[in-house]
């Protein structure tokens, strides 16, 4: 709302133009009471008024002296005299005569409030001439600020004084309105005009308050200019090398100019930073500097005018308070330049010398302008943040740290991402030594956010720096400063950053307080292990958990560590599981060894879980969980052996000096990581070698008496493991392989003497090789369990010397003989052959075992040997097949017992499926043809069943020629012959087996000729059998026949269309020409060549 100043319209307009940011409280109404005191001192007279002599003359009496006594006398006179008018008038005259203007004003105000107006005072304060003649010289400092002065005495009565000034101007003539000339009754119905008048009053109060503030600024300026004692100034002049310290007011003035320069030259971010660092200063107003001096020119003007005389103060106008220096008393201007430069001039000269690099100790008599122009060729720059940093050389370690703390946040964003790791030493050193916690936190935040997606090498550099930082600052600061940075990025969107967090937790583990290590850090890693989706992050988490387990000493965390081990072992990622075995389990086992719970808690817990799993999985074993538990047990074998050595009776006798033989390279299995190396667990290879010598001697000569750790292995662990082995399913090749590998590593780790004297006897006690032990009806069927293959492949193969091989061959021959003679299932023997056959080293050994069966006197054993050849053929090379397998099978195929001959058919079929040598295939083909075409086998139902079963199994994978020329024609014959089979049971057996064979062969590509001549006729013969024997199979066969007939029809139509299209494309005289021209357009591109022969779409 526009406001009208009833006292001075022109002043109001000028102030509105010069002070656009000032606001006036326009919300107050007459009902709110008198306006509050303005933000300043309203006692200074207006700029166009001459102040009273009392306030300017130092030889006049202070109001605290004579003036006060007069006032007291007047007051008492008024209280006790009946002639009030006469006494009051005398007092008023005395006050005016002695120039106690403020006292007279207050006296006049009190009389007005009492309803007793005094004409003398009314006339005096109503006459503007009494005040317009006076000068605007401000009162002296001691008269304004001193105790008892007008300011201190009348500060509580600001509103009274303001009203006095209003009264003094109320009778002004012309267009200037006074309080008396305003008829508020006229505006009683118009609230807006009444508000305008109130605003005008408030504006006047504000202006007078600012004038008072400006008067105080003048005194403050004078005090600031003379605040350095004269003795100190003499010291600075006499010793030029000592720099005079910057004064607070000088600093604020320079800050204002610097900020103004930054804003004008679009350094907005630098200006914001500069303002934040000087939050105690308002950069919007020059008056906030606190000096009664005009605002100097900007830095650019100062630079250009460096060394030239500055404008005279008489030519400068203080626009903030509208005072002309020429209107001030002469002594206010003339004395200051004579003594020393004005503070404004000091600021200007200081900036000039700072920019130009002037040296006050210079003895040359060059003009400042010439020197400045000369130095301008140096091309220096100090008008920026960086320039200021460059020109301000650090003179102490702390100042270096402060400088780095200021500069690094600006340096980092401008460094290439690929080279930012070069900044890591600077960031870390600064973060270590910087005194401000806030700056240290910012620097560490920069460190962890230095690279958006750090690669492996960059992460290694950051981790190395973090460890160096942790070693330098100690656990407390690591917890307070580094861990929060990890916690902030635990859910970062980039996996590389989360990976950095996971790796940091492990790297910092040795330098953290133990309470934090086993609580906060452990919880962080557990959360990341359970929630993070990136395999590489979980892998790093597992490794860091292993490091934590190496330093943890809170035994209550054992159960949490055990659950973390099981959780990480169940991870779907192979790399995570690998990290568990390489790092976590060895570290966790080392901790449990110190706790004494490796043998009493950790291993028994895993065994209990395996047994529970076997009990629950009678109808379907969870092989994955079994693998998890058994692999954990396997990783615990090295620490278990280390415990046995370290707690042996001979441990104290181990001597490191002397001739200690080196450990054989093959003595231990290859460890998955250095942490699983027994030498690493023990401490050194020398110590391990010394202990192994004593260990073997103890086992061979002195026994295990008093050796509690080893007795636990022999009497508790081994029997429980053998019992578990006997309960697993022998047909599960995965379970057999897992346990075989476990026992192999177990025996190799504990050594040959331990295996021969402690492990083998326990297995042999159970596997007593006699026919009584395979009596299924009596419950003695241990030879049919997985114990056989696990003992053969896990224990007997640990050592490969001649006696060991003989023992293995003898065991397999005995098992084959015993099972054959007992008519027991051969699953355990087959499992042994499959596990051993996977390793070519044992192929010759297995062929030796089978040849033993080929020449055995019992037909049952020869049948078993023939069937075992089927398992061995797939893994044996063709040379061995030709030299050892086929001759043995041909020998068996001419065996007197028909059952032995029939047993060779699956092995012959497997050879047809896997071998590529034509001569070998022809020999097998001739042998199979003799089975089919020899009249002596015409009524051999079992032989026909085995041949059909074998054809159905190997036909889809056999050579196409063998399938088309041999398999399908003979199947057709067998199907045709089965139509005339008189025995219904045999007929349905053959029909069912033929159905399975034809179903498998229907997926193969069959030529049209074979399809028409053999495949379809065979299916029709089979359908004829199924119509009578199995109607549900007949429906399926009908659909198969129909589908095959459609294929034949479509193939014939396609061939006809293809021949027609070829013929039509070649019709015409220019067919050859077109073809040759098309070929001529081709380049060497194979793709273009292929396009020529593509059918057009």
From TrEMBL:
GO terms for cellular component: recycling endosome; trans-Golgi network. Transmembrane segments: none annotated. Residues 16-30 have a biased composition (Basic and acidic residues). It is found in: Golgi apparatus, trans-Golgi network; Recycling endosome. The keyword Aminoacyl-tRNA synthetase does not apply. One of its GO terms (biological process) is intracellular cholesterol transport. Keywords: Coiled coil, Endosome, Golgi apparatus, Lipid transport, Repeat, Transport. Its main location: Golgi. Residues 1-67, 125-153, 221-242 are annotated as: Disordered. PROSITE patterns: HEAT_REPEAT, LISH. The keyword GTP-binding does not apply. This is LisH domain and HEAT repeat-containing protein KIAA1468. It comes from Sparus aurata (Gilthead sea bream). The lineage of its organism: Eukaryota, Metazoa, Chordata, Craniata, Vertebrata.
